[in-house]
Amino acid sequence: MAGTPATPLLKDELDIVIPTIRNLDFLEMWRPFFQQYHLIIVQDGDPSKTIRVPDGFDYELYNRNDINRILGPKASCISFKDSACRCFGYMVSKKKYIYTIDDDCFVAKDPSGKDINALEQHIKNLLTPSTPFFFNTLYDPYRDGADFVRGYPFSLREGVPTAVSHGLWLNIPDYDAPTQLVKPRERNTRYVDAVMTIPKGTLFPMCGMNLGFNRELIGPAMYFGLMGDGQPIGRYDDMWAGWCTKLICDHMGLGIKTGLPYIWHSKASNPFVNLKKEYKGIYWQEELIPFFQSVILPKECTTVQKCYIELSKQVRAKLGKIDEYFIKLADAMVTWIEAWDELNPSGASAEVRNGPAK
After folding, report:
1. b/e map of 63-77 (b: 16 or more CB within 10 Å)?
2. Of 83, 166, 176, 308, which is least surrounded by CB within 10 A?
């Protein structure tokens, strides 16, 4: 393309966080979209292994030794041998926005065959309001060619700030192990051209492989839990973060959008390995969801940090009865907030907004 490319949106206000155990050749495909942004690479597994990053990218890379050095004893809250370690990148970032992507995710094409700039769509989602209090049947009213439909209350048309943009995937769907085993050859070919706000009071399964969020609004809630090495559970890191984040967004009067953009998810993980990781989570979840549906955060919780500490107390009191893992997780939630506040001393989270009464 002739001439210099236009300055990308939020170039100096957004970090791209990538957890990995391998060379990042996948970045070549993303070069037109990512090269002008700063990358934070969180290397999981063996810290003595060298991860190769293609030339021309502006990045910082942290391995387990770096995490231990920076956080000291508090490093215990960061998972090892699990992509949950990505949340360390959220903590050390100094930017307002985060986009996180897995290293097996490639550029997807829209139905016309054009490459999808996933990051640009996430930014559009984050920079326009959400509508969690009243559903708009034309989906996102702030998109070109859409608006609020007849009957939508004018008092709610201003919307609320968007904290999270949850993107989707073509090709390999994000299924759990039992579904993978039953449908090993299923591929997602459905491109749905829609973005919608998840209504207040509704939980959702948040996938961390194509996710954008406003770190200043919701960052401290984006803790991906204790997973992987030494833990009885895996593959619930993003789910845990999603349930906690949605609960806190509802309390704080913030919005979460889901839908566009799509990425191309290139490889299916092993369903037998996944089943081993998910086994406990699959049945614990039947008690976790009612727990999250019943949590009420007191009005004194006016920052994300206060909400998260309160939630950790309720996790300890109520979920600790299910398994001692949740007592460990509740402790780690507190450690995470302490570490966040140490690394982000002026980052007192935005105060609660006054949304419609609960």
Report:
1. bbebbeebbeebbbb
2. 176
